[in-house]
Design a protein that fits this description.
Layout lengths: L2 E5 L10 E11 L4 E10 L6 E4 L2 E4 L5 E5 L4 E5 L4 E3 L4 E5 L4 E11 L4 E11 L8 E9 L9 E6 L2 E7 L5 E7 L5 E6 L10 H12 L7 H7 L9 H11 L12 E5 L21 E3 L11 E5 L25 E9 L3 E8 L7 E7 L5 E8 L10 E2 L7 E7 L13 E7 L10 E2 L7 E5 L2 E14 L3 E7 L6 E8 L3 E9 L4 E9 L2 E8 L7 E8 L4 E8 L4
Helix pairs in contact: 1-3
């Protein structure tokens, strides 16, 4: 008989690649059947066809362009499905400028592959790749802009440009090449006196002595005038020399320290960050985008209380914290050819510091000497007498020693010689353009110091004052010379300024004396006296040693 054969699958396509199981059924003439399974392997031995062409793209904006490489494919065929192995959508940046060799691989379902190569040309006809920029701002820690700072740009290690910031503190460098190495370094050397006063010396000394610590890393950097990472007397010396005009700059430091704003400075330190550890530059290697936050924090060296004007760059005027002033007045002893000035302030305050530039007429007066009064630790280093030919004396003083400010003794005294006995009463004043007159009330307050002139002009003075003996135990004699008969009042004060007693005597022309017995003094110690006639006043000190 006959047998009919039937297969479960007789047609195959790309979806059947690989091994397929086919069931074959045999049917006899008597309708009897039998089956078997056949494994059929289907292979695709035909590689795909891919043809490519060279392409060119143009950068029209920004610094990159997203393209699709399918633009380069001319022919892509296969008897089965296929795909491109490489991603077709890519981003071209400025590093891809010029001619680039690309390769695309077409792979079909059977794993057969074909490759095409082509040239991709990327053109920056608008020169956009040389239009990157770096911009930023110089700011104080409080966000105030810093003007007249010089910002230098170094490209690939060479100096290439610089800008001077205006009052907004901003800078911007344009036309920078993609992939270049850029370094930004700002400096500011001008006007070192901006914001620096004796008040700053008081604050730094308080930190050194442990009386009150500076609580900001930027304050510590400002105080590190001689930059070595340690606050000490050398920093105070450099500040004082600048304030007094002995120098016109800090000899070991810049006027400003400009620090990368991204540097996190440690807090809670007793000493400033070492200068070698401060980041004073910003570096951008392989620049691939514009930068708009290349900011720096500026610290005015020597200005611990942050009283500078970073944009207008004024000198050291109007820095005190109040328009209310403290008066500095004088007693003027006008002799025939000599002038003595005794300086006083309001008895209600005992300043921690003081500064001023004192003006006299050098054509009429010659400065001869100065004498210490009740201001503690006042010494020659607190004065600048180098401007006497111009009639200028500068003072910067501070101390934390306790003292009493009372009328029995002046703060200090100046002595002059008259160049002409017919010159009349001399005039004196402050010279603000050389040094802003200021008095430090306490660590938190400073006030302008005003000069109110002479409390009295004395034509018939007390002179040749002498104390014998001094120190004394049993009795003391105060000797003096008057030029006419008068009444003289002697006031005695203890070292705290408390008035103890007064004695008034009538004097004769010439040499006079006042004798005080030991019973007038209760305890051993230092006492002060004020000797005053109708138009004259002198001051002195007694040292009493109580006998057993």
């Amino acid at each position: 008989g006959t047998v009919d054969l039937a297969a479960s699958q007789t047609e195959f396509d790309c979806d059947d690649l690989g091994v397929s199981t086919v069931i074959v059924t045999a049917t006899g003439s008597n309708e009897n059947t039998a089956q078997c399974e056949i494994a059929i392997t289907l292979e695709d031995n035909q590689s795909p066809t891919i043809e490519c062409q060279d392409v060119e793209y143009f950068l029209e904006e920004g610094s990159s362009l997203i393209i699709n490489l399918s633009d380069a494919i001319v022919t892509l065929e296969d008897n089965c499905q296929l795909e491109i192995e490489e991603p077709l959508e890519i981003e071209l940046g400025c590093t891809a400028l010029g001619e680039n060799l690309f390769e695309l691989t077409a792979i079909d379902q059977g794993g057969n592959s074909s490759i095409c190569t082509f040239n991709l040309t990327f053109t920056d006809s608008l020169d956009l790749c040389n239009q990157l920029s770096i911009s930023g701002q110089l700011l104080t820690k409080d966000g105030l802009p810093i003007g007249l700072g010089e910002v230098f740009l170094f490209t690939n290690g060479l100096s290439s440009d610089f800008q001077t910031t205006s009052s907004d503190g901003q800078f911007e460098f344009q036309g920078l090449a993609f992939g270049s190495n850029q370094l930004i370094e700002p400096i500011k050397h001008i006007n070192p006196m901006n914001g620096v006063t004796t008040w700053d010396i008081v604050l730094v000394q308080a930190h050194i002595l442990g009386l009150r610590l500076l609580n900001s890393p930027y304050q510590l950097i400002a105080a590190d005038v001689r930059p070595d990472g340690t606050l000490n007397v050398l920093d105070l010396i450099d500040m004082r020399n600048l304030i007094l005009g002995r120098t016109n700059r800090f000899p070991f430091n810049q006027s400003w320290k400009l620090i990368n704003s991204e540097q996190n400075l440690p807090t809670g330190l007793l000493q400033p960050t070492h200068p070698d550890d401060l980041e004073t530059i910003r570096e951008y290697l392989d620049l691939n985008e514009s930068i708009n936050d290349a900011n720096f924090i500026g610290v005015k060296i020597g200005d611990v209380n942050n009283s500078n004007d970073p944009s207008n760059l004024r000198n050291s005027e109007d820095r005190a914290d109040s328009k209310e002033t403290v008066s500095l007045n004088t007693n003027l002893n006008d002799l025939q050819n000599k002038v003595k000035l005794d300086f006083f302030t309001d008895e209600k305050i005992t300043p921690l510091g003081m500064q001023f530039a004192f003006k006299f007429d050098p054509n009429k007066l010659e400065f001869k000497d100065w004498k210490k009064g009740i201001l503690p630790e006042l010494q020659l280093e607190n004065f600048n007498f180098q401007r006497l030919e111009d009639g200028i004396i500068l003072l910067s003083w501070n101390s934390f020693m306790e003292y009493s400010n009372y009328k029995a003794a002046p703060l200090f005294s100046f002595y002059f010689r008259k160049k002409s006995i017919n010159g009349g009463t001399p005039d004196f004043s402050f010279c603000d353009q050389h040094l802003s007159p200021e008095v430090v009330i306490d660590l938190d307050n400073s006030k302008p110091l005003s000069f109110t002139g002479n409390k009295q002009a004395i034509a018939n003075p007390i002179s040749q004052l002498e104390v014998r003996p001094n120190p004394f135990s049993s009795a003391v004699e105060i000797l003096f010379l008057t030029e006419s008969p008068s009444k003289v009042t002697l006031g005695i004060y203890d070292d705290l300024g408390q008035h103890l007693f007064t004695k008034t005597v009538s004097t004769l022309l010439g040499r006079n004396s006042i004798r005080l017995e030991e019973d007038k003094f209760q305890n051993s110690g230092i006492y002060h006296f004020r000797l005053q006639s109708e138009n004259a006043v002198e001051y002195g000190r007694l040292i009493f040693i109580k006998s057993n």
